[in-house]
Protein 1
Amino acid sequence: KTLAARLRSQLLAGQALSDSHGAYDYFVRQEPRSGFCLVLQQPKPMTEGTAELMYLVAGLSLLLCLGLCVLASMRFSRQLFEPIRALNSAMREVEEGNLNVQLDNRRIDEMGQLSGRFNRMAQRLRQNLKDSLRQQRELNEAQIRMMQAQLNPHFLYNTLDTIKWMGKIHQAPEIATISADLADILRSSISADELVPLRQELRLVERYVEIQNIRFSGAFALTVEVDEPLRDVPVPKLMLQPLVENAILHGFRDRSGGEIRISAYRTEEDLILTVRDNGCGVPEEVLAQYRDGAPRPGGHFGLHNVDAILRIRYGPDRGVRFVPVQGEGACIRITLPVFRKGEEPPC
């Protein structure tokens, strides 16, 4: 069917004129003289295909804009919040004790300035920690040297008094022995070494017992049970002498025939030293102090000093311990870490 016939039938039926494609608009005008109808054909400004294409283009443009907005917002969010997350994570590590954390402060905005301040704060904290540890170590070493330099003044007075009266009255050769032993003890007490081989400590104890045996006319005996390899283990100086002195002054105060036994054995990582005597034992109040882990100075001055030295140098669980014994007497146990050659002991 031709377009003219289609339009004629629509015109006679009084219908709106249209073609089969809908691509044109039609207008009818009747000529007044001749009575002919003029049909004007005008292309439509927008066809259905054009509209669909425009809708498609608009939809794609909208999706593209949304995608670009999402990407831009993600990048902006990353630039804004990533430094904040990094700062938060770094602060968490500092709270957990890691002071070596550093932030990237190559940015020139406010976040870069904040990162730079955080890095400087962490650096100052590290330096303050180092200074604090150094000061604490120096304080501990000073306390150790001070305690090691303290000798029981009664022992010195009594020894010097013994030398004086024996020189005046008896003219005995024991004077030379006492003088030599006392010189060894004083030499060890003023030396700068804080750790000495165990054999040196044992020799110092033997000198001390020799002096006291002369003073008390052989009232007690010393037995040393330490294997030769263990005698080279480094121990704090003046550690055994106060324990032996405590046994003599407090354990054998009104007794004779006493015996002091020093023994040592080694576990995998520790050296176990024990000082055992058969004296009158230790008062319950003193035992209670050392069971509580907080001994207080008092009548057992040397014992307190040894306990304090061990706690400062090796930790709070390395102090003096009293071991229960069967029968009379007391037994003190000391546990020391054994260091291999070239290793540094803790300060």
Protein 2
Amino acid sequence: MRRVTQGPERALPEDLTSAITRAGYYPALVCDVVESALAGEEVVSHLVHQETTFDHETVRRHVTVLAVTSRRLVIAHADDHAEPGAQATATATTETVPLDAVRGVMVTHVVTEPEGFVQNSPSRDITLTLGWGAVSRLDLLPAQCGDPDCTADHGFEGTVASDDISLRISAAADGEAAVERALSFARHLSRAIGGSVRA
């Protein structure tokens, strides 16, 4: 695979560079921070996801790059960070996680008209959630009692979930190819961390 090199030990695979360029969000900046975080390691799998959100009357663009090497998961996120009328500003943050620290790869499939679903159909929305313990979410609900006449306070019960990053990819908005790329990335990362996920 031909590589794009911009200095000693700094290279991105051509297909990753192309994906970042297609996303269209300050590609030179995004390529630079991803290269820096990779520190010369070879990329074996990657996913680039661009999203536009609306905050009141402000349009904000975001791009997330996930790159897997033989030892690490590299996460880069860049977005607009300027107030309306102010000079354009972007922030770009990278995080590096050892693969053995990644706790889970979760894929949620959303399918309309499931009665007509055909196996391996790409026409769906998915949410890809990765957890490595940096962020935990605690969901609490009042504890329930089996006695319908009971009025005692049974406290709370809940679950702790790790969802450090969550990306929603829609066939309608992003294209069926984007859904397939996300599923392929999920399968690869799942194998890399030694688990399994049906994607």
Protein 3
Amino acid sequence: MSTTVAVAGARGRLGSLVCEVVEEHPDFELVARLNRASDPEDGAAARILVDVSHPDASPGIVDRALGRGQRVIVGTSGWSADRLEQLRERVAATPGAGAIVVPNFSLGSVLGTALASMAAPYFDAIEVIEAHHPGKVDSPSGTAVRTAELMAEARGGRPVEAPFAEQPARGQLVAGIPVHSLRLAGVIAKQEVRFGGAGEVLTVTHDTHSNESYRAGIRAALDAAVTAEGLTVGLDRVLGIGA
């Protein structure tokens, strides 16, 4: 029997791709394409709810889905550490609940973040530059936020050298690491993490040239959501990378 899936934000770039992946997967059945005009209870019968909507709408969509006993995959940006902690508490208080939050479905991006986390303890200066298409409403991106948080964790609390961080042009500090956001036509997604050391600079770069790069990650998240319990943050945790 196929696992039924509803997609919130189905008309967007990522939502359209998620719908395609679900329809192509022999073990899943797409039963609802949800958008802003949908009734809050549309798609309530689906076993899995994939939320790729809007940062403002996402928490409410996810909360309703968990309340109905649905498994949830969250691909919407804007889930800060505070939001994730609230979600963790919500999931923990709901027996059998499962939620997977994926800041980026790209396998290359996940590996790039893992490499950056490996390098983070060895350099005192670290900065992140992320670029996305003009339609991306949030900045920094969820991927950049997660990358910065994982690098800070890898450093064990040792602060990054970030001179003049109070100046707006120096970017936004995320876990003590400056993050710079660009929104440009002609760009899908790109992230650079630059590490500065004595006499050298190391750069870890990931470029997304097509939304096709997200297909494998979406499939992996769908497969994991069927049996996942508790809160899982990051495709790296789904794939067992750096876990």
